[in-house]
Amino acid sequence: MSELTENEKICTLALIHTPGIGSVTIRQLIGYCGSASEVFKSEYKKLIRIPGIGEKVARAILTKNCLSMAEEEYRKCSESGTGLHFFTDKSFPARLKPLYDAPIVLYSRGNFDFNAARTVGIVGTRQISEYGKATAEIIIKELQPYFPMVVSGLAYGVDITAHRACLKHHIPTIGVMASGLDVVYPSSHQRTAAEMMEHGGLVTENALDTKPDFMRFPARNRIIAGLSDVIIVVESAKKGGSLITVEFAQNYHRDVYAVPGMIGNAQSEGCNALIRDHKASIFTSVSDMAYAMGWHEMETDEGAAEKVQLQASFDGFTQEEGQILALLKQNGTIQIDELSWQSGMHLNRLATLLLNLEFQGMVRSMPGKKYGLI
After folding, report:
1. What pLDDT score does 315 carry?
2. Are residues 333 and 279 in the same domain?
3. What does UniProt give as the signal peptide span (predicted)?
4. Which of 4, 71, 143, 361 has most Cβ atoms within 10 angstroms of its Cβ?
């Protein structure tokens, strides 16, 4: 899919800022009109016929009041080195693209790959116990051989513990924010956020200068869930934001694990309930989880280097897509289960990537759940 022009990006930002329009409606508008710029060129009679677009929204679009605001925002992002990733761009996270409620745009700062081979979401209570801190540290340390990217929310408690442990053990980590990138919340985490820029970074769907408010946190949690292959809940009370993240993860068919805690411990009631209600698998160790996910430790020998070079020969594809294409080139026709084992990718994730490659005319599916290059 081709990158948007500067004008299309500005028009898309303007739609985001138009009152009464969400991400689902924006996709609807662009789908009917052909592009964001064409939405603003459309007549009232055309807009009003689009499902979900009422009179109020149609008139708000026709005023075009948000175009100047979008132009200013685009300028600020360019001057501050803020990355803009629109849902039609190749740089937009592949894990989010299939989701019906995915953000229209993501803002980013830092040094990381949205499409890392493996991503792990670490979430939990802000009132973390010493047991929770120790457990989060152990999880991060044991994740090292699998070279994942760790996703969390930069909040107090489990989130910041996970981010800091990643920095200590040299694992890339990104913080998904409920504010604009220039409004680090809580402010006491500004130093950690700055350190994350070298080996990770910050991500949000909110424009610069946006202050965090109550409703932005659940929206932030859906992005954490969407970016993750697996969610690990370290500690959680009966109610809390991490349980909202779990709900999103289940809707997105992500794997969920919960760390069991002592009976009667308020900080573990949520985790124990998730396990009891079969909403999460019990977390016993990273190696057990990796086995269930179909992961294997990343190779570091010459053979692995050759595989990386082979993947690099597929220019224009993500790291994961290149890995799949390289394996298909090496093996010819292969069953999806075997491809999952060789790639270390979970079947759900692999199926999504194979479907995308089919749409791009690179891969064909065959009887017996087999795949091969076209």
Report:
1. 54
2. no
3. none
4. 143
Q: What is the pLDDT of residue 312?
A: 44
Residue 106 has a CB neighbour count (10 Å cut-off) of 24
Backbone angles phi, psi at 372, to 5 degrees: -155, 165
Asked if residue 90 belongs to a domain, the reply is no
In a shared domain, residues 245 and 212: yes
DSSP 145: G
Predicted pLDDT of residue 2: 55
Backbone CA torsion sign across 109, 203, 147, 356 = negative
Distance CA 226, CA 60 (A): 31
Domain that holds residue 240: 108-293
Put the strands of the sheet holding 83-86 in their side by side order: 83-86, 105-111, 200-204, 173-176, 149-152, 119-123, 230-233, 255-258, 281-282
Residues of the chain with pLDDT under 50: 1, 299-312
Based on the domain organization, do 130 and 172 belong to the same domain? yes
Of 199, 234, 232, 206, nearest to 220 (Cα)?
A: 206
Q: Which residue has the tokens 């809940």?
A: 233
pLDDT at 298: 60
- 147 and 285 share one domain: yes
Question: What is the pTM assigned to this prediction?
Answer: 0.78
Strands, E assignment, the chain: 83-86, 105-111, 119-123, 149-152, 173-176, 200-204, 230-233, 255-258, 281-282, 334-335, 363-366, 370-373
**Average pLDDT over all residues of the chain:** 89
pLDDT at 78: 94
What type of residue is 197?
Answer: M
Q: Longest Cα pair distance anywhere in the chain, in angstroms?
A: 63
Is the domain of 72 the same as that of 124?
no
Count up the domains in the chain and report the number. Answer: 3
Report yes or no on 84 lying in a domain: no
Q: Which letter, b or e, does each residue of 131-142 get, where b requires 16 or more Cβ atoms within 10 Å of its Cβ? A: bbbebbbebbee
